[in-house]
Sequence to fold (350 residues):
Amino acid sequence: MATEAAKSASKRSSTARSKKAKPAFSKETYIKWYKDMLLMRKFEEKCGQLYIQQKFGGFCHLYIGQEAVLAGMTESLKPTDRYITAYRDHAHPIALGMHPKYVMAELYGKVTGCTKGKGGSMHMFDKERNLFGGHGIVGGQIPLGAGIAFADKYRNEDHVTACFFGDGAARQGSLWETFNMAMTWKLPVIYVIENNNYAMGTSVERTSNVTDLKKLGLSFEMPSESVDGMRPEAVAEAFARAAERARKGEGPTLLDIQTYRYKGHSMSDPQKYRTKEEVKEYQEKDPIVYVLDVIKDNKWMSEAEIKDVQENVKALVEESVQFAEESPYPEAHEIYEDVYMQEDYPFVKD
Ligand SMILES: Cc1ncc(C[n+]2csc(CCOP(=O)(O)OP(=O)(O)O)c2C)c(N)n1
Ligand SMILES: [Mg+2]
Fold:
């Protein structure tokens, strides 16, 4: 079983970078990618440590390894666009520009968290940056993403919705109804499979006869492509094509972004479904190491400047932990706030 998955891992391997190749994006972009991805990575490593120390409980799904997906995406979409994702969601608000201390406080269940301590790890929201969650029901955000895009189309707004979900979620029945509707109405939505090859312990090969996930869009004639998710350039280019199509009124795109999570599904995963060699194979294509290599090869930053970035990231993560530690828990009355209630519902009793 693991051998099958390992075989497929080598099939999805990223293109090796020729040392001499001219970088496809600007110096500023590569430096931003390095800073952003390093922050996501270090923040998540700290989350893993804090979880083991029982500083917070509940679920904790780490994003380590998948950072190039968000780095590439932010290059090509706008802050006014809309975003919705699953439960592996700590890095999404950070990539969109939220200070990580609000994510950390949310993990701690503190009132200063981005969901006032009521959502926890799987339910990060950010109204200001149009992040519509954080969803724990596998695939639940697929129809919701169409709904957000429908609202924008209905109001003649020029926004695009990026709807992220996993390779496992791609097998949910609601995807079929949603894709049909989204294509019929040409909704401005980008469906993004963060394809890390596993749904908990189940590899893509074990979930269906169809293992090339871009094919899921084809029966709706939805433009669909596979993308190298270990390289932010490939992700940025794919998002730019999809966003242009959506803004022109041509409707949705499906991106099968082939990425990898280095850690287990959640914090209690013995990872018997894959080999150490397979994990190593992906780590050798690590997007953060790769981007730093491009920066060094082009002499865009000195050693001192690189160290500065690393120190800043470390300080931001420490500040986030301190903020979460020192923040109060919500008060008891908060449980009745931010809850939807229909006052005239016939069965509500005093
Ligand atoms: C409707 C539903 N079914 C099952 C689960 C249990 N579950 C949680 S995560 C998960 C795997 C999903 O994998 P994938 O969509 O590939 O996302 P990844 O964890 O790889 O990011 C499952 C089956 C759930 N949360 N919701
Ligand atoms: Mg997956």
